[in-house]
Amino acid sequence: MILQLLLEGKMIKQYTLYLILILSPLFTGCQSNALGRNALTIMPSSMLNSQAEQAYADEKQKNKIIKNTRQSHLVQQVANRLIMVANRDYANYCQGFNWEVVLFDKPKVKNAYCMPGGKIAIYSGILPVCQNEAALAAVMGHEISHALLRHGNERVSQQIGLTTLMVGANYALNKNENVSSVQKRNILIAVGLGSEFGVALPFSRMHEREADYLGLRLMAKAGYIPSEAPALWKRMQANGKSMPEFLSTHPSDASRIKDLESKQQEAFSLYRLAPHKYGKGENF
Global pTM? Predict the structure, then answer.
Protein backbone atom coordinates (compact mmCIF):
# COMPACT_ATOMS: atom_id res chain seq x y z
CA MET A 1 0.00 0.00 0.00
CA ILE A 2 2.83 2.42 0.81
CA LEU A 3 4.54 1.73 -2.53
CA GLN A 4 1.20 2.37 -4.26
CA LEU A 5 1.03 5.81 -2.63
CA LEU A 6 4.60 6.46 -3.72
CA LEU A 7 4.04 5.48 -7.33
CA GLU A 8 0.70 7.28 -7.61
CA GLY A 9 2.52 10.49 -6.90
CA LYS A 10 0.81 11.13 -3.60
CA MET A 11 4.18 11.06 -1.90
CA ILE A 12 6.67 11.49 -4.74
CA LYS A 13 6.02 13.25 -8.02
CA GLN A 14 7.49 11.79 -11.16
CA TYR A 15 9.96 14.61 -11.65
CA THR A 16 11.31 13.95 -8.16
CA LEU A 17 12.20 10.39 -9.13
CA TYR A 18 14.29 11.57 -12.06
CA LEU A 19 15.88 14.31 -9.98
CA ILE A 20 16.85 11.72 -7.36
CA LEU A 21 18.30 9.52 -10.10
CA ILE A 22 20.46 12.39 -11.36
CA LEU A 23 21.58 13.47 -7.89
CA SER A 24 21.85 10.00 -6.37
CA PRO A 25 25.68 9.96 -6.27
CA LEU A 26 25.41 12.72 -3.66
CA PHE A 27 23.47 10.66 -1.16
CA THR A 28 23.22 7.04 -2.34
CA GLY A 29 24.73 4.26 -0.31
CA CYS A 30 24.38 0.74 0.94
CA GLN A 31 23.51 0.92 4.61
CA SER A 32 22.97 -1.84 7.12
CA ASN A 33 19.31 -2.13 8.09
CA ALA A 34 17.90 -3.03 11.52
CA LEU A 35 18.53 -6.74 10.84
CA GLY A 36 22.06 -6.23 9.56
CA ARG A 37 21.36 -6.67 5.84
CA ASN A 38 22.93 -4.16 3.44
CA ALA A 39 20.19 -2.16 1.72
CA LEU A 40 20.46 0.36 -1.10
CA THR A 41 18.48 3.52 -0.32
CA ILE A 42 18.45 6.42 -2.76
CA MET A 43 16.18 8.91 -1.00
CA PRO A 44 17.26 10.87 2.08
CA SER A 45 15.10 9.63 4.97
CA SER A 46 14.10 13.18 5.86
CA MET A 47 12.58 13.68 2.39
CA LEU A 48 10.67 10.41 2.48
CA ASN A 49 9.43 11.03 6.04
CA SER A 50 8.20 14.50 5.11
CA GLN A 51 6.30 13.28 2.07
CA ALA A 52 4.90 10.36 4.06
CA GLU A 53 3.60 12.78 6.68
CA GLN A 54 1.75 14.73 3.99
CA ALA A 55 0.26 11.55 2.51
CA TYR A 56 -0.82 10.47 6.00
CA ALA A 57 -2.50 13.84 6.58
CA ASP A 58 -4.36 13.40 3.29
CA GLU A 59 -5.55 9.95 4.35
CA LYS A 60 -6.83 11.34 7.64
CA GLN A 61 -8.76 14.01 5.76
CA LYS A 62 -10.45 11.43 3.52
CA ASN A 63 -11.32 8.77 6.11
CA LYS A 64 -13.37 8.80 9.29
CA ILE A 65 -11.24 8.25 12.40
CA ILE A 66 -12.51 6.35 15.45
CA LYS A 67 -11.66 8.27 18.62
CA ASN A 68 -12.37 7.96 22.34
CA THR A 69 -13.70 4.42 22.22
CA ARG A 70 -12.51 1.29 23.99
CA GLN A 71 -11.14 -0.04 20.69
CA SER A 72 -9.22 3.14 19.88
CA HIS A 73 -7.71 3.18 23.38
CA LEU A 74 -6.57 -0.43 22.99
CA VAL A 75 -5.04 0.34 19.58
CA GLN A 76 -3.16 3.27 21.11
CA GLN A 77 -2.05 1.12 24.04
CA VAL A 78 -0.59 -1.56 21.76
CA ALA A 79 1.12 1.12 19.67
CA ASN A 80 2.65 2.78 22.74
CA ARG A 81 4.16 -0.49 23.96
CA LEU A 82 5.64 -1.34 20.57
CA ILE A 83 6.95 2.19 20.01
CA MET A 84 8.65 2.10 23.41
CA VAL A 85 10.58 -1.01 22.32
CA ALA A 86 11.41 0.51 18.91
CA ASN A 87 12.74 3.71 20.47
CA ARG A 88 14.72 1.76 23.06
CA ASP A 89 16.24 -1.00 20.93
CA TYR A 90 16.32 0.51 17.43
CA ALA A 91 16.94 4.19 18.21
CA ASN A 92 19.28 4.66 15.23
CA TYR A 93 16.59 3.45 12.83
CA CYS A 94 13.76 5.67 14.07
CA GLN A 95 15.63 8.96 14.21
CA GLY A 96 13.40 11.70 12.87
CA PHE A 97 10.25 9.63 13.43
CA ASN A 98 7.15 11.49 14.59
CA TRP A 99 5.10 8.54 15.82
CA GLU A 100 1.33 8.60 15.46
CA VAL A 101 -1.42 5.97 15.22
CA VAL A 102 -5.01 6.31 14.02
CA LEU A 103 -7.88 3.84 13.80
CA PHE A 104 -9.80 4.34 10.56
CA ASP A 105 -13.50 3.48 10.54
CA LYS A 106 -13.34 0.96 7.69
CA PRO A 107 -15.13 -2.21 8.88
CA LYS A 108 -14.74 -3.96 5.51
CA VAL A 109 -11.00 -3.27 5.20
CA LYS A 110 -8.63 -5.78 6.83
CA ASN A 111 -5.46 -3.77 6.57
CA ALA A 112 -2.85 -1.71 8.38
CA TYR A 113 0.33 0.16 7.50
CA CYS A 114 3.17 2.19 8.95
CA MET A 115 4.62 4.88 6.73
CA PRO A 116 8.25 6.04 6.81
CA GLY A 117 8.58 8.35 9.80
CA GLY A 118 6.29 6.31 12.06
CA LYS A 119 2.79 7.17 10.79
CA ILE A 120 0.62 4.14 11.64
CA ALA A 121 -2.88 3.39 10.35
CA ILE A 122 -5.14 0.56 11.49
CA TYR A 123 -8.37 -0.18 9.62
CA SER A 124 -11.19 -1.30 11.91
CA GLY A 125 -11.97 -4.33 9.73
CA ILE A 126 -8.81 -6.07 10.90
CA LEU A 127 -9.75 -6.00 14.60
CA PRO A 128 -12.30 -8.86 14.46
CA VAL A 129 -9.65 -11.02 12.76
CA CYS A 130 -7.05 -10.05 15.37
CA GLN A 131 -9.48 -10.74 18.21
CA ASN A 132 -7.01 -9.55 20.86
CA GLU A 133 -4.19 -7.12 21.60
CA ALA A 134 -1.40 -9.63 21.01
CA ALA A 135 -2.54 -10.39 17.47
CA LEU A 136 -2.86 -6.66 16.78
CA ALA A 137 0.68 -6.31 18.14
CA ALA A 138 1.76 -8.88 15.54
CA VAL A 139 0.12 -6.83 12.78
CA MET A 140 1.35 -3.50 14.05
CA GLY A 141 4.82 -4.83 14.87
CA HIS A 142 5.07 -6.12 11.29
CA GLU A 143 4.10 -2.72 9.86
CA ILE A 144 6.39 -0.78 12.21
CA SER A 145 9.20 -3.11 11.17
CA HIS A 146 8.77 -2.07 7.53
CA ALA A 147 9.47 1.51 8.63
CA LEU A 148 12.41 0.59 10.88
CA LEU A 149 13.91 -1.51 8.09
CA ARG A 150 13.41 1.37 5.60
CA HIS A 151 11.71 -0.93 3.14
CA GLY A 152 9.79 1.94 1.54
CA ASN A 153 13.02 3.70 0.64
CA GLU A 154 14.56 0.49 -0.64
CA ARG A 155 11.54 -0.35 -2.81
CA VAL A 156 11.45 3.14 -4.32
CA SER A 157 15.15 2.75 -5.09
CA GLN A 158 14.42 -0.58 -6.73
CA GLN A 159 11.60 0.87 -8.83
CA ILE A 160 13.87 3.66 -10.03
CA GLY A 161 16.45 1.05 -11.03
CA LEU A 162 13.91 -1.09 -12.90
CA THR A 163 12.46 1.97 -14.64
CA THR A 164 15.95 2.98 -15.70
CA LEU A 165 16.52 -0.53 -17.06
CA MET A 166 13.35 -0.32 -19.16
CA VAL A 167 14.22 3.16 -20.45
CA GLY A 168 17.74 1.99 -21.32
CA ALA A 169 16.46 -1.12 -23.09
CA ASN A 170 13.95 0.93 -25.08
CA TYR A 171 16.63 3.44 -26.07
CA ALA A 172 19.05 0.69 -27.20
CA LEU A 173 16.36 -1.07 -29.24
CA ASN A 174 15.28 2.16 -30.94
CA LYS A 175 18.89 2.73 -32.00
CA ASN A 176 19.10 -0.72 -33.59
CA GLU A 177 17.61 -0.58 -37.06
CA ASN A 178 17.88 -4.36 -37.49
CA VAL A 179 15.23 -5.04 -34.82
CA SER A 180 11.62 -4.96 -35.99
CA SER A 181 8.86 -3.25 -34.02
CA VAL A 182 7.39 -6.64 -33.11
CA GLN A 183 10.76 -7.85 -31.86
CA LYS A 184 11.21 -4.66 -29.84
CA ARG A 185 7.82 -5.12 -28.23
CA ASN A 186 8.52 -8.76 -27.37
CA ILE A 187 11.95 -7.95 -25.93
CA LEU A 188 10.53 -5.15 -23.76
CA ILE A 189 7.75 -7.44 -22.55
CA ALA A 190 10.34 -10.09 -21.66
CA VAL A 191 12.49 -7.54 -19.82
CA GLY A 192 9.43 -6.26 -17.96
CA LEU A 193 8.28 -9.73 -16.94
CA GLY A 194 11.79 -10.73 -15.94
CA SER A 195 12.11 -7.62 -13.78
CA GLU A 196 8.73 -8.22 -12.17
CA PHE A 197 8.97 -11.95 -11.45
CA GLY A 198 12.74 -12.20 -11.11
CA VAL A 199 13.42 -9.09 -9.04
CA ALA A 200 10.42 -7.09 -7.79
CA LEU A 201 8.20 -9.87 -6.41
CA PRO A 202 10.97 -11.92 -4.71
CA PHE A 203 12.44 -8.70 -3.30
CA SER A 204 9.06 -7.75 -1.85
CA ARG A 205 8.59 -11.20 -0.32
CA MET A 206 11.98 -10.85 1.37
CA HIS A 207 10.77 -7.57 2.88
CA GLU A 208 7.66 -9.27 4.21
CA ARG A 209 9.67 -12.05 5.84
CA GLU A 210 12.03 -9.53 7.42
CA ALA A 211 9.08 -7.53 8.77
CA ASP A 212 7.46 -10.71 10.11
CA TYR A 213 10.66 -11.62 11.94
CA LEU A 214 11.42 -8.19 13.39
CA GLY A 215 7.74 -7.67 14.20
CA LEU A 216 7.71 -10.94 16.14
CA ARG A 217 10.67 -9.71 18.16
CA LEU A 218 9.01 -6.36 18.81
CA MET A 219 5.76 -7.88 20.09
CA ALA A 220 7.62 -10.34 22.34
CA LYS A 221 9.79 -7.60 23.82
CA ALA A 222 6.66 -5.50 24.37
CA GLY A 223 5.19 -8.30 26.50
CA TYR A 224 2.73 -9.87 24.06
CA ILE A 225 2.75 -13.65 23.74
CA PRO A 226 4.44 -14.46 20.38
CA SER A 227 2.33 -17.55 19.66
CA GLU A 228 -0.48 -15.19 18.62
CA ALA A 229 1.48 -14.23 15.47
CA PRO A 230 1.13 -17.58 13.65
CA ALA A 231 -2.35 -17.98 15.17
CA LEU A 232 -3.35 -14.68 13.57
CA TRP A 233 -2.12 -15.78 10.14
CA LYS A 234 -4.06 -19.02 10.44
CA ARG A 235 -7.17 -16.90 10.98
CA MET A 236 -6.19 -14.67 8.06
CA GLN A 237 -5.74 -17.77 5.91
CA ALA A 238 -9.24 -18.91 6.82
CA ASN A 239 -10.68 -15.47 6.00
CA GLY A 240 -9.36 -15.00 2.49
CA LYS A 241 -8.16 -16.54 -0.74
CA SER A 242 -4.46 -16.77 -1.51
CA MET A 243 -2.76 -16.59 -4.88
CA PRO A 244 0.36 -18.66 -5.70
CA GLU A 245 3.38 -17.29 -3.85
CA PHE A 246 5.44 -16.65 -6.99
CA LEU A 247 2.71 -14.29 -8.24
CA SER A 248 2.41 -12.39 -5.00
CA THR A 249 4.25 -9.56 -3.29
CA HIS A 250 3.70 -11.43 -0.02
CA PRO A 251 4.74 -14.92 1.04
CA SER A 252 1.91 -17.45 1.01
CA ASP A 253 -0.01 -17.77 4.26
CA ALA A 254 1.36 -21.29 4.70
CA SER A 255 4.96 -20.10 4.28
CA ARG A 256 4.41 -17.20 6.65
CA ILE A 257 2.88 -19.45 9.33
CA LYS A 258 5.73 -21.96 9.00
CA ASP A 259 8.37 -19.21 9.32
CA LEU A 260 6.69 -17.68 12.37
CA GLU A 261 6.30 -21.05 14.05
CA SER A 262 9.98 -21.86 13.44
CA LYS A 263 10.98 -18.71 15.35
CA GLN A 264 8.78 -19.26 18.40
CA GLN A 265 11.60 -20.53 20.64
CA GLU A 266 13.65 -17.38 20.01
CA ALA A 267 10.60 -15.15 20.43
CA PHE A 268 9.60 -16.78 23.73
CA SER A 269 13.12 -16.21 25.07
CA LEU A 270 12.56 -12.49 24.44
CA TYR A 271 9.05 -12.65 25.88
CA ARG A 272 10.38 -14.15 29.12
CA LEU A 273 12.77 -11.19 29.46
CA ALA A 274 10.03 -8.57 28.97
CA PRO A 275 9.58 -6.50 32.16
CA HIS A 276 5.78 -6.61 31.78
CA LYS A 277 3.89 -9.54 30.30
CA TYR A 278 0.39 -9.02 28.92
CA GLY A 279 -0.17 -12.41 27.30
CA LYS A 280 -2.90 -12.04 24.70
CA GLY A 281 -4.04 -8.76 26.27
CA GLU A 282 -7.67 -7.71 26.11
CA ASN A 283 -10.12 -8.92 23.49
CA PHE A 284 -11.66 -6.50 21.00
Answer: 0.74
